[in-house]
Design goal:
By secondary structure, this protein is mostly helical. It contains three helices and no strands. It is elongated and about 45 Å long.
Length: 72
């Protein structure tokens, strides 16, 4: 039987918490009429919202975050 990686579980918990923190911001951006992945990424960058790993927002990061949010 394969053992679970406790470090991996901790990372998943942190990632889920980050998604929960960012989703209200994305929902507010969408409510203002911005719906595309690239425009949302630009707005997150403009607002200086940090990515999970401290990088720059782009369409792929927004897509991945939204996909993860749909599983929570």
């Amino acid at each position: 039987m394969k053992q679970r990686n406790p470090g991996g579980e901790a990372m998943r918990v942190k990632a889920d918490a980050h998604v929960a923190k960012i989703m209200p911001i994305i929902e507010a951006i969408r409510a203002d009429g911005t719906t595309g992945l690239k425009p949302i990424a630009r707005e997150l960058t403009r607002r200086r919202v940090p990515t999970f790993r401290g990088g720059r927002w782009d369409a792929t990061r927004v897509r991945v975050l939204l996909a993860r949010a749909s599983t929570l």
